[in-house]
């Protein structure tokens, strides 16, 4: 019987037994019940009855896909299985024949023979069982078992077959004879069956509907029409799984197509889809808690979330750890075979017994193949599976949290940067808990989630490295004896440094993250307030502010780099030190001779150990960084939430406050638990506004009005009804929309009643609009009802706008509605609520942004029209005169207290009303008949040539004449699709980086450092060769071992210093490049023209400043350096080997190099495309984050939370697909490169055995270098592609660094410093259009304004009023004509000079976060006394100087200049923000002041007071005021009336009012009888 048959029989029996037990367990599991979809309401009994509104998973989400040509597949597979059955039957017959030869033998032989028969019999049984299987799970299970068993049988039988009959040269062995023919036949049959099983697919190809996972836009752009659109990993064969053949389709697709689209890529398996992962993560967070005995982790420590995410992914993590353990065990097997091969060549230099040589060659080759296949699978699981899953799970759960989290980001003050050190330390912990800025929440969802998910790459090192260290140590012991322990003891010295370095790393990383947060937060604000910055010419000042934070950030980045480099130096030094100590002890102390075999094998093992030792600290650092991020994520997940909303039928329909005290939401975890006993008012934090003791009862199905002065708490009252405010005492009743309302309404019955009782809708004061078409904004995911939609447009006065907008209701709204006028934004926002199915409408000051005529229309046609029948409307408004007569219930507030509540009659009789309306005797007996005629008059006067706003990008308002009805064209894109480059990264981009790093001197130093460092290993190995070769035949050496070890130590030491220095050189250039490139991008974006800011999504620009720059800062330089390092290392190795191997080696290198090149080329094209797609698909994801964080209150009020969640999960799927394939393609390349590497090593070994002319030393040297070159080549390609992918970030940054800029800041000669001294304005033939392809907006305007004149500019929404205002600041330059200010043509003046000398108070007030002082006095130019005076002038603080007590309830925050201002000033009402902008204008004191709807959101009484202030303060200044309130401008010097971009009237108000035919007369008359007579009186008639 052949050798080792007993051992093989035992192995086969064990494998078959294991397979049988696995199959039995799986059979038991499947009979216990079919797989159920998870039940989503887990918990106590009461919860089970309530479906979870955030459960957005459907049954289809769990499907892998629908089989294609299923019958045909199973038929074909059946034939394959029949062939297998025949093969296994033949093996059984052969084994029986074999047994007949051994029957006379002993019982051991008989047992072996029986096992050899039973094994193929078992294979036959499994195959026959699988013949009836026609479903994927059991079939794939059978195939996997057969594949594993046949490969074991083939390999073991094959290895035995090649063992020679002669004893080996290295170790003696007993030889037995056998029956070669039967044995070889059996091996052949096993091999054929193995191949057949390996290529059998595990299931039919699958199709999954694209529209179930992607948005309609992605589906429309798909060009790949392949039906089998689900990734092959689900149904591929075992061979395909091991060699990633299912990815070949993607690689080739990327190579053929000019550019890939998301829809062209195969869809990921169900376990990788966002909905499935979100559902699982949500249940895990609800049901799984970390506890060890009585110990539980502190909330916010990060351990809880870490435990939950590990528990959720237990299966893949176990697979990862098992693979890591096996591959770690296999790592030293190639070294073992290499040692055996070199030893054989030493013992048999004439190659007399080549048989054993071939055995070692096969062993070497197979061990490399197995190691590389295992590590490929290990990396595949780590990157494509675990990493992508971590990312999806954390992202989705953070987004879901945002949808239920209290919106305290809006009302929270920013951090105070100027705290004392002691104070700072105490508050540091609090600060971290406080996610007050919206940008911080964005950072959490992007940077922090990425950091945690990327830890998946390092996770397996926790298992892999320790095993490698143990096996490596044993190997070294075999080579060097106990000397190796002296060497390894040195590594223990490095362990305490771990702890210290860990602390430093976390601290540096923490600081880096904080400064990055701060910078992104400021950039977010700057981009949001870019128009104001341009109006004020503040670009340079804010540039300096950002660069100051950036310098700080780069300081921490540099510190991080320094720590990393020193850390790596220590860990690179540790194996060198270990080697030195071990060799020193071996040669000097023990006096052993260091032979080449011992020296080179030890070095190889030490190098393998170096990887293990290096992996541990890197993993350790990454683990700490991930924990920092997890801590932040967990803190956010623990923040306070709004109260959950019960189903509609369980809610009371009453709307009432019962003894309530309310305040703005507080973001503290504790407050969410204090539901039983509400704390007293005293616990309200200082500087928080409180609504005290409310007892109100709003009538249902009626209109109620909430009025009150500026900042009296009206918005807070509406938010309280929505459940968004904190209830301190009392009871609050108001129905709220369940989070899944919109999702449930998507499909509705024709006969169903439209208005659903108990559903709410909310219209905020500052319109929140999505970047979508007007129609989509109004429908807000509800089904389209033509009749209702048209009625809504009419009621909201949007019909005319739709006619005038080029694309009608398909016109795309820019981000934050930039391309609509204030009035249009307000009306679209209102239309969304009117169209909705809500029965309760909460409207916050919707009439303030429109003119008197439109306000009149909205009130009568919309708020009191047929669409409001059966609906409860609660309106906050300053238009008391207009609204009070129709309101059933009125509430008046003043500084947080109710001053009046009751019916309209009582209100009209009370003194409260007089304080809120314009100063006049109110007589409410309006003549309906007369009013109707006024309406007709106004319509006749203003709609004769009806015209409205063409909302062109950079405009507030624009106009064109009404064109005849034209055929409908597809709507134009306003927010342009994000472009992505195609093909290779261009030379320009490379040159940009090279120049940014430094000049010729820097690159010379760089080249020198890297080239010298590359020769360090050659010098080290060269000296070892000299040392080991110095021993003569008599065993003596010309020098003492101390001499050799001394020089070896010196060579290694110098090498270490140089290799460390090269990284310092690299990072110096990298920091310089980061500085230069950031400054360039920042400057370009700040000075880009406004059209860019209006047409480009803010998330996209932030993506450049955030994610792209994070890549440039942290990974670009690393990839650049490593690519260079591996390139030079490869070149060095090839040169060295060419010198030794001669021309034949050079020829071989060229052939294999060309194969490498072609595989690498195919890969790099696809990989680059994947990276670009990944970058481009991030932007919509960031946009939906941004939109949701900003509009969470509106989303919740409409009940759209679950719809937004589903949309976000679609975006996550769209983004994770290219990311998944990016790593899939990486694995595809890896496995092919490593197989080529194995071939090279195999060939080198074959040549060494075949050619007796090659000595053992030369063979060992060649093999060592062959193994390093393959590693270097693989990493060279991988790093180069990573470098190209990092360059994509630079490419995107470069694109935005070359934007078209505004005209220059300064033009010589500059105007005098005192200009304008008078304030005279002259317009000559002014023609303006927004773009060459758009119609004119202003048509040949000619007018003169004398110094100090006050001019009111009136006109319908969209008549060109704001355009005229913008033209004074050169936001749009004249197409023809010119504007002169004090006889200077403004087009000849630099923008900074012009804008800094004029002042505008814009329609939508913008203030930046900080304190009240920093908002009003951005650059510390004024004294506190001046600031207080300005606040008095705008009536934000009373003129008396009485100090208020510290604990006054609802103290006036404007009295304290250190009062916090939150991001975007959201802790102030719109009216208060407008007054702050006016106070800023008073401080600036420009000669020319333009006011665009500057007091639209201010109550009438305050408006009148401000009117007086303006007349007193700006008596000598020229003022242009755009207003909808006629009272504001009635006493001005002149009135300009615009219509369709032409001046129709321009004269004194008195003159115009004395002409009944004038349009101004018609406008005034439309305000009602009383107001009309009052206007006449005020104008002096």
From TrEMBL:
It is found in: Membrane. Residues 408-434 are annotated as: Disordered. Residues 321-625, 1007-1285 form the ABC transmembrane type-1 domain. One of its GO terms (cellular component) is fungal-type vacuole membrane. The keyword S-adenosyl-L-methionine does not apply. The chain crosses the membrane at residues 6-25, 82-104, 110-131, 143-161, 181-199, 321-345, 357-375, 485-506, 1000-1019, 1043-1065, 1134-1159, 1179-1199, 1229-1250, 1256-1277. Keywords: ATP-binding, Glycoprotein, Membrane, Nucleotide-binding, Repeat, Transmembrane, Transmembrane helix, Transport. Its main location: membrane. GO terms for molecular function: ABC-type transporter activity; ATP binding; ATP hydrolysis activity. Residues 676-920, 1321-1565 form the ABC transporter domain. It is a multi-pass membrane protein. Residues 408-430 have a biased composition (Basic and acidic residues). It holds the Pfam family ABC_membrane. It comes from the Eukaryota. This is Multidrug resistance-associated ABC transporter.
């Amino acid at each position: 019987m052949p050798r080792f048959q007993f051992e093989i029989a035992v192995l086969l029996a064990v494998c078959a037994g294991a397979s049988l037990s696995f199959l039995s367990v799986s059979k038991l599991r499947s009979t216990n019940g079919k797989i159920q979809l998870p039940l989503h309401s887990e918990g106590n009994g009461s919860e089970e009855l309530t479906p979870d509104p955030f459960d957005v998973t459907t049954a289809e989400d769990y499907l892998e896909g629908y089989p294609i040509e299923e019958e045909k597949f199973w038929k074909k597979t059946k034939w394959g299985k029949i062939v297998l059955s025949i093969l296994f039957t033949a093996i059984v017959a052969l084994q029986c024949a074999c047994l007949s030869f051994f029957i006379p033998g002993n019982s051991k032989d008989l047992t072996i023979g029986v096992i050899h028969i039973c094994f193929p019999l078992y294979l036959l049984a499994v195959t026959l069982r699988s013949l009836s299987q026609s479903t994927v799970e059991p079939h794939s299970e059978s195939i996997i078992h057969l594949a594993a068993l046949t490969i074991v049988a083939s390999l073991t039988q094959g290895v035995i077959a090649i063992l020679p009959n002669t004893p080996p040269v290295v170790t003696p062995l007993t030889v037995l004879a056998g029956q070669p023919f039967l044995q070889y036949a059996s091996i052949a049959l096993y091999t054929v069956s193995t191949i057949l099983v390996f290529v059998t697919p595990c299931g039919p190809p699958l199709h999954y509907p694209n529209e179930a996972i992607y948005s309609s836009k992605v589906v429309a752009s798909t060009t790949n029409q392949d039906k089998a659109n689900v990734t092959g990993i689900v149904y591929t064969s075992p061979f395909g799984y091991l060699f990633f053949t299912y990815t070949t389709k993607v690689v080739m697709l990327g190579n053929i197509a000019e550019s890939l689209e998301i829809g062209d890529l195969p869809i990921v398996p169900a376990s990788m889809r966002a909905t499935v992962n979100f559902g699982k993560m949500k249940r895990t967070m609800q049901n799984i808690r970390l506890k060890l005995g009585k110990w539980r982790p502190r909330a916010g420590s990060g351990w809880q979330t870490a435990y939950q995410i590990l528990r959720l992914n237990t299966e893949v993590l176990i697979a990862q750890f098992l693979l890591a353990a096996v591959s770690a065990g296999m790592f030293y097997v190639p070294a073992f075979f290499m040692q055996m091969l070199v030893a054989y060549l030493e013992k048999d230099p004439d190659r007399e017994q080549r048989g054993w040589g071939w055995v070692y060659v096969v062993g070497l080759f197979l061990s490399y193949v197995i190691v590389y296949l295992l590590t490929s699978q290990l990396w595949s699981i780590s990157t494509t599976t675990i990493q992508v899953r971590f990312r999806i799970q954390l992202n989705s759960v953070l987004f879901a949290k945002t949808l239920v989290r209290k919106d305290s980001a809006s009302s929270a003050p920013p951090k105070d940067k100027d705290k004392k050190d002691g104070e700072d330390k105490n508050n540091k912990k609090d600060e971290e808990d406080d996610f007050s800025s919206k940008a911080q929440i964005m950072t959490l969802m992007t940077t922090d989630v990425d950091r945690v998910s990327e830890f998946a790459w390092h996770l397996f090192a926790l298992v892999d490295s320790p095993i490698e260290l143990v096996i490596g140590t044993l190997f070294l012991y075999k080579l060097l004896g106990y000397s190796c322990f002296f060497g390894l003891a040195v590594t223990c010295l490095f362990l305490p440094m771990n702890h210290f370095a860990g602390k430093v790393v976390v601290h540096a990383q923490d600081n880096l993250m904080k400064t990055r947060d701060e910078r992104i937060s400021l950039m977010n604000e700057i981009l949001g307030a870019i128009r104001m910055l341009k109006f004020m010419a503040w670009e340079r000042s804010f540039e300096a502010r950002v660069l100051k934070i950036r310098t700080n950030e780069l300081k921490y980045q540099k510190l991080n780099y320094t720590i990393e480099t020193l850390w790596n130096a220590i860990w690179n030094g540790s194996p060198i030190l270990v080697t030195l100590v071990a060799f020193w002890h071996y040669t000097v102390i023990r006096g052993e001779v260091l032979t080449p075999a011992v020296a080179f094998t030890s070095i190889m093992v030490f190098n393998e150990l170096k990887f293990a030792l290096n992996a541990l600290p890197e993993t350790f650092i990454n683990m700490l960084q991930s924990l920092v991020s997890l801590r932040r994520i967990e803190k956010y997940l623990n923040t306070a939430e709004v109260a959950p909303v019960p189903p509609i039928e369980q809610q009371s329909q009453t709307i009432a406050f019962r003894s309530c005290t309310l305040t703005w939401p507080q973001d503290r975890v504790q407050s969410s638990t204090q539901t039983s006993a509400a704390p007293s008012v005293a616990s309200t934090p200082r500087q928080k506004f409180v609504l005290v003791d409310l007892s109100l009862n709003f009538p249902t199905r009626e209109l109620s009005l909430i009025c009150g002065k500026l900042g009296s708490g009206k918005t807070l009252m509406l938010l309280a009804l929505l459940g968004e405010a904190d209830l301190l005492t009392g009871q609050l009743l108001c129905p709220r929309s369940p989070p899944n309302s919109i999702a449930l309404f998507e499909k509705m019955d024709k006969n169903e009643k439209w208005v659903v009782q108990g559903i709410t809708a909310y219209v905020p004061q500052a319109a929140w609009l999505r970047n979508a078409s007007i129609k989509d904004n109004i429908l807000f995911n509800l089904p389209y009802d033509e009749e209702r939609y048209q009625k809504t447009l009419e009621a909201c006065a949007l019909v005319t706008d739709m006619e005038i907008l080029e694309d009608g209701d398909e016109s795309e709204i820019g981000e934050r509605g930039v391309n609509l006028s204030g009035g249009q934004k307000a009306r679209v926002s209102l239309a969304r609520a009117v169209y909705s199915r809500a029965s309760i409408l909460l409207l916050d000051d919707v009439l303030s942004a429109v003119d008197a005529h439109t306000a009149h229309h909205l009130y009568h046609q919309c708020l009191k029209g047929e669409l409001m029948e059966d609906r409860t409307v609660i309106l906050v408004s300053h238009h008391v005169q207009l609204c009070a007569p129709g309101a059933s219930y009125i509430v008046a507030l003043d500084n947080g207290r109710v001053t009046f509540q009751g019916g309209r009659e009582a209100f009209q009789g009370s003194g409260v009303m007089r304080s809120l309306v314009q100063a006049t005797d109110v007589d409410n007996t309006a003549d309906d008949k007369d009013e109707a005629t006024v309406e007709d008059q106004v319509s006749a006067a203003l709609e004769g040539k009806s015209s409205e706003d063409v909302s062109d990008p950079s405009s507030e308002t624009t106009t064109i004449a009404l064109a005849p009805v034209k055929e409908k064209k597809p709507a134009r894109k306003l927010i342009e699709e994000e472009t992505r480059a195609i093909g290779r990264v261009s030379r320009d981009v490379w040159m940009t980086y090279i120049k940014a790093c430094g000049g010729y001197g820097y690159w010379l130093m760089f080249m020198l450092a890297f080239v010298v460092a590359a020769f360090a290993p050659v010098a080290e190995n060269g000296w070892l060769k000299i040392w080991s070769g110095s021993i003569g035949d008599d065993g003596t050496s010309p020098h003492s071992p101390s001499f050799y070890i001394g020089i070896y130590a010196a060579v290694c030491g110098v090498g270490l210093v140089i290799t460390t220095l090269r990284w310092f050189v690299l990072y110096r250039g990298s920091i310089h490049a980061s500085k230069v490139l950031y400054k360039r991008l920042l400057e370009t974006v700040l000075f880009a023209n406004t059209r860019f800011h209006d047409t480009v999504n803010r998330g996209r620009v932030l993506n450049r400043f955030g994610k792209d720059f994070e890549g440039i800062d942290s990974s670009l330089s690393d990839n650049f350096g490593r690519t260079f390092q591996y390139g030079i290392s490869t070149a060095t190795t090839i040169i060295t080997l060419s010198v030794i191997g001669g021309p034949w080696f050079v020829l071989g290198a060229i052939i294999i190099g060309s194969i490498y090149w072609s595989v690498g080329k195919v890969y790099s094209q696809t990989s680059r495309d994947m990276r670009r797609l990944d970058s481009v698909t991030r932007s919509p994801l960031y946009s939906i984050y941004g939109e949701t964080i900003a509009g969470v209150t509106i989303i919740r009020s409409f009940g759209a939370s679950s719809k937004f969640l589903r949309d976000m999960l679609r975006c996550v799927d769209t983004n994770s697909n290219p990311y998944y394939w990016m790593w899939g393609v990486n694995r595809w390349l890896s496995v092919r490169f490593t197989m080529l590497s194995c071939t090279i090593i195999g060939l080198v070994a074959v040549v060494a055995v075949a050619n007796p002319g090659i000595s053992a030393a030369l063979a060992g040297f060649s093999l060592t270098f062959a193994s390093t070159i393959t590693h270097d080549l693989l990493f060279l390609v991988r790093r180069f592609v990573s470098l190209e992918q990092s360059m994509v970030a630079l490419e995107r940054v470069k694109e935005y660094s070359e934007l078209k800029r505004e005209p220059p800041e300064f033009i010589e000669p500059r105007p005098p410093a005192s200009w304008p001294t008078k304030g005279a304005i002259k317009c000559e033939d002014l023609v303006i259009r927004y773009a060459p392809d758009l119609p004119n907006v202003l048509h040949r305007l000619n007018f003169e304004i004398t110094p100090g004149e006050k001019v009111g500019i009136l006109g319908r929404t969209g008549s060109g009023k704001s355009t005229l205002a913008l033209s004074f600041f050169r936001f749009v330059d004249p197409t023809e004509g010119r504007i002169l200010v004090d006889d200077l043509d403004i087009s000849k003046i630099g923008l900074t000079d012009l804008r800094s000398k004029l002042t505008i108070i814009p329609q939508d007030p913008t203030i930046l976060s900080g304190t009240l002082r920093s908002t009003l006095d951005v650059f510390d130019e004024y004294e506190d006394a001046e600031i207080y005076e300005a606040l008095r002038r705008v009536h934000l603080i009373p003129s008396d100087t009485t100090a208020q007590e510290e604990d006054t309830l609802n103290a006036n925050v404007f009295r304290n200049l250190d009062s916090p201002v939150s991001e975007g000033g959201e802790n102030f009402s719109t009216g208060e923000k407008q007054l702050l902008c006016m106070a800023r204008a008073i401080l600036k004191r420009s000669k020319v002041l333009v006011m665009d709807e500057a007091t639209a959101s201010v109550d009438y009484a305050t408006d009148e007071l401000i009117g007086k202030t303006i007349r007193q303060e700006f008596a000598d200044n020229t003022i242009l005021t755009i207003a909808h309130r006629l009272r504001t401008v009635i006493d001005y010097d002149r009135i300009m009336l615009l219509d369709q971009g032409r001046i129709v009237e321009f004269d004194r108000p008195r003159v115009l009012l004395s002409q009944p035919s004038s349009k101004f007369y018609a406008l005034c008359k439309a305000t009602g009888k009383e107001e009309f007579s009052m206007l006449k009186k005020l104008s002096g008639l």
